[in-house]
Design a protein that fits this description.
Number of domains: 2
Radius of gyration: 19 Å
Bound molecules: S-adenosylmethionine
Shape: globular
Order of helices and strands: HHHHHHHHEEHEEHHEHEE
Strand order of the largest sheet: 3-2-1-4-5-7-6
Number of helices: 12
CATH topology of the largest domain: Rossmann fold
Helix content: 40-55%
Largest sheet: 7 strands, mixed
CATH superfamily of the largest domain: Vaccinia Virus protein VP39
CATH architecture of the largest domain: 3-Layer(aba) Sandwich
Structural class: alpha/beta
CATH class of the largest domain: Alpha Beta
Length: 272
């Protein structure tokens, strides 16, 4: 008797029914990609669904934190209405506090982009991949007039907020709701940032990052990894460093590292 093939649409629909994911809006593309990948890896459909559920939890990572987006938008609008750079920065910093990745970077911000752009040059067009709340660091970037900032995330509510934030900050470009591992960015640019996510992406599916890096039409790609685990208890710097260099070993691109207190950057000269 032949075994029934799993009903992928039904599995995707079941996972998409999760209330939390419906509330923030997660692309069906993302769920389908994870389900198909787990069906190919696991011994049966039941194990694949269980594993897909866990992977989705890690990819969406609601535990990293979100601000109250309506309140954040009002706070940023009030700050921008003052026209005072210090007030605008204070509002951006307060909102970035709500997400682990940007909160951890707050103490570094004064030197983070100056040191990074000393290597890459100050970009006219930035692609911020898997951006989280990082576009709120624009007031620290010193981008030239007319610069464009494209920010990609798979969390629809976050992307809606970021579109409003980019307009309030007077930045050109857009926030784009897109799973960049399923559909790489269509936009080209000077610098692509993929900060503190590569080690998590490789957990979704080993080998998933290199095709994305290949597809990027940019001069520089900037990856980063944390140097400490989320709880701060484990030093993970060397393990993540090995992982990044392992992925990049397949390409001839020169790499310049920049180390900060809790984050290690890899500036990759793809086509400088
Ligand atoms: C750990 S946070 C890092 C945020 C930001 N890069 C930073 O360092 O501040 C990961 C973010 O990437 C987004 N994300 C994860 N996988 C993604 C994908 N395949 N495409 C687009 N966004 C993704 C998540 O929704 C989340 O906002």
């Amino acid at each position: 008797m032949s075994k029934q093939p799993p009903d992928v649409d039904a599995i995707v629909a079941e996972l998409a029914r999760n209330k939390k994911y419906r509330a923030i809006g997660i692309a069906e593309d993302t769920i389908r990609d994870i389900v198909l990948s787990e069906l190919a890896r696991q011994p049966n459909a039941k194990a694949a669904v269980q594993s897909a559920r866990k992977k989705l939890h890690e990819v969406v990572a609601l535990y990293l934190g979100d601000p109250d987006y309506d309140a954040a938008e009002a706070q940023l609008a009030d700050a921008c209405a003052t026209g005072d750079p210090a007030t605008i920065r204070a509002a951006c910093a307060a909102i970035m506090e709500a997400h682990d990745s940007t909160r951890e970077r707050l103490p570094l911000l004064e030197s983070f982009y100056p040191r990074l752009f000393a290597v890459t040059g100050v970009p006219q067009t930035v692609l911020d991949l898997a951006c989280g709340l990082n576009p709120l660091a624009i007031p620290w970037m010193g981008l030239p007039a007319g610069a464009r900032y494209y920010a990609y995330d798979l969390h629809q509510r976050r992307v809606d907020f970021l579109n409003r934030a980019l307009a309030l900050l007077g930045a050109g470009g857009a926030a784009i709701f897109q799973d960049i591992l399923v559909t790489p960015p269509q936009e080209s640019g000077d610098v692509a940032l993929l900060l503190k996510e590569i080690h998590r992406m490789e957990k979704r599916r080993r080998g998933i990052v290199l095709p994305l890096l290949d597809a990027l039409e940019v001069r520089w790609i900037v990856l980063s990894s944390p140097t400490r685990s989320r709880t701060g208890r484990r030093a993970v710097k060397e393990a993540y460093r090995e992982q990044v260099h392992g992925i990049l070993a397949a390409r001839p691109w020169p790499i310049i590292e920049i180390e900060f207190a809790n984050e290690l950057l890899y500036c990759i000269a793809k086509a400088p």
